Amino acid sequence: MSSETSSMITVAMTKGLGLLHWVKWLSLVFLGLIIAGLLVKERANVGSFFLQVGWMMLALMVLTMALGYTIATLASLDNRSATAITIEVGIHNGTLAIAIASAPAFLNTPAMAIPAAIYSLLMFAVSGAFAWWAQRQATIST
Predict the structure, then answer these.
(1) How distant is the alpha carbon of residue 136 from its chain centre?
(2) How far is CA 50 from CA 19, 79, 108, 122, 132, in A?
(3) What's the CA angle centered on 134, arms 129 and 138, to 5 degrees?
(4) pLDDT of 80-89, one tens digit each?
(5) What does residue 123 show for φ and ψ, rounded to 5 degrees?
(6) Nearest CA to 92 among 117, 71, 110, 112?
């Protein structure tokens, strides 16, 4: 492979990584807009929805994250890998669930999107808390 070809590949990969950064932020903004729209539409019921399904969504998230961390640890993965797996398990595709439940082309039942929206809201707090804890553990062990 020539050095010119290698340079072109490096530039393309660097631009691709920069694009990936923006796609991640764009998807986060898109999720926020979907959740905000759903919550505005159902604003009269949001409190009761949290009471009805909030604890269940929190339990589901904590249980799956604990299982992910435990299995990664039992598999003798390093702390960074165990943390990445745990967060990935905790962050499910709430946007897809919301879209399928509320889109006219699919289920067309916005009320069915409420558990996914609540899960999506909770996942930021729980995954963020876990990431903070994992970072502290990494700092303490070094």
Answers:
(1) 21
(2) 36, 33, 21, 10, 25
(3) 150
(4) 899 888 888 8
(5) -65, -30
(6) 117
